[in-house]
Design a protein that fits this description.
With 244 residues, the protein is an alpha+beta fold. It is built from 6 helices and 6 strands. InterPro entries: Kinase-like_dom_sf.
Amino acid sequence: MGEDLFRGRNHALPVLQELKYEGLTFVVSEGLAFCHKRLVAHLDVSYDNILVNFAGGINSPRTSAFRSKQYLSVHFPVRYYINGFEHAAVFFEDSKPSERTITGLPNACWGSKKEYFTRRVPPEMGNAEPYCPFRADHIVELKLWDDEAELHRMTVKTKAASTALRLLILFKEMSQEIPTQRPLMAEVYETLQTIIRETDQAAQEHYAGIYLPRESHNRGVEKDNRGVLPMVVVDGASGGSVKM
């Protein structure tokens, strides 16, 4: 990204700032907003395309020797990075907004068969008409979230009800079938920043990351001395997924 390579918001891409409530960690898509501002649509955001500068992934050894080293992470900033741009759509700065479109699945440019692209995709990817890859990135990103029921549960709890409800509304907007009804990633980022600012300070963790589901991804994973699950995350203390 040229002169942007070493900017603070570029975790090349830097994903995120987090809002943590009732043990849940929510992503603020700073990284994708950073990409979109520079006319790069990732189109393949997933766990295997998120890197971390800290040992503690799902396949890490669970020995006492490893854990003693693992706990050192509390003394150093943990950084997470978006990787895997082989399916990304990139446009020149002098291109017209109306020309910033693509057709078909992201792997089509490689001549790959559609059944080989197994990610969750928005409706427009299945059509023959050109579509905006930036608004399609919303649906691709939302596959990181797989516990909408947990958010619904939180809406009935006094402490987290307001935050959970606002997040549900935002995610529904991001998952609209009609692309033009989805907010731009910069708008998503600003909305989440507002939610963070307006959330009770005691409930915030000033890291950056994504939500870790409580069941499927947590089996066999031990918590560290902060009660945090040492899994793939995005710029923060814990990681996870969500879908709508």
